[in-house]
Specification:
Blueprint (H helix, E strand, L loop, with lengths): L6 H14 L4 H8 L3 H8 L7 H11 L4 H4 L12 E3 L3 E9 L4 E8 L4 E4 L7 E15 L2 E5 L4 E5 L4 E17 L5 H4 L18
Antiparallel strand pairs: 1-2, 2-3, 3-8, 4-8, 5-6, 5-7, 5-8
Length: 202
């Protein structure tokens, strides 16, 4: 059975990537639109971030989402960690820096609606419905997605997902702009230097 994404690990990975980038919490808050207090709580494992918050952080840091929910690793499909706060998201393919894309399996509960903010500029998203019924909100209009068929749309605009009475499971592939590939090729975060008692984080 797939393991639940570990909030403590998410926080540790976020802290390591922020420090490797030389960013203070205050500067990270400016880039992401997530408050300094909330970022600090996430890094310390004291707050469980929503998917919307993680997308804001990913967009502000110019990171693919899997860098935050899967550590950027490519887990075996049967062992892929699942993020199941408001919706269930399992990593199918972690971010590939050469293809500049990542793929998730997303499950919505019956009648559930999930609204998403715009992702980083130039992002496109492919959705392929595997099971159930699904509608997508694009440019303010809802449209049905046929089962075993795909829909491609601009992910850098607000959009939404709405399942039918049986729920829905679909694949979501994020395609990031080729001009961002160099920025998205993330090396393993550097290990932070040991901190002395009383040292401030930023």
């Amino acid at each position: 059975m797939a393991a639940e994404v570990d909030d403590v690990q998410i926080g540790a990975d976020l802290r390591a990537r922020r420090q490797a980038a030389g960013l203070s919490l205050a500067r990270a808050a400016e880039l992401t639109g997530v408050s300094k207090a909330m970022l600090g709580q996430i890094e310390r494992g004291e707050s469980s971030p929503t998917l919307a918050t993680l997308w804001k952080i990913a967009r502000g840091f110019r990171l693919p989402l899997t860098c935050l929910i899967a550590g950027g690793a490519a887990p075996a499909a049967e062992n892929a960690p699942v993020f199941s706060k408001e919706i269930a998201v399992a990593t199918v393919f972690a971010f590939d820096p050469w293809l500049a894309q990542e793929t998730f399996e997303v499950t919505l509960q019956p009648g559930q609606t999930h609204l998403s903010d715009a992702h980083m500029s130039g992002t496109w998203e492919d959705v392929v419905l595997l099971d159930g019924a699904l509608e997508m909100q694009l440019d303010g209009q809802w449209q049905a997605v046929a089962q075993h068929r795909g829909l491609r749309f601009r992910g850098d605009r607000p959009h939404g997902y709405r399942s039918g009475p049986e729920g829905s499971t679909f694949l979501s592939t994020m395609h990031y702009p080729s001009s961002e590939q160099a920025e998205l090729k993330q090396a393993e975060p550097k290990q932070a230097e040991p901190k002395q008692a009383g040292d401030k984080d930023d």
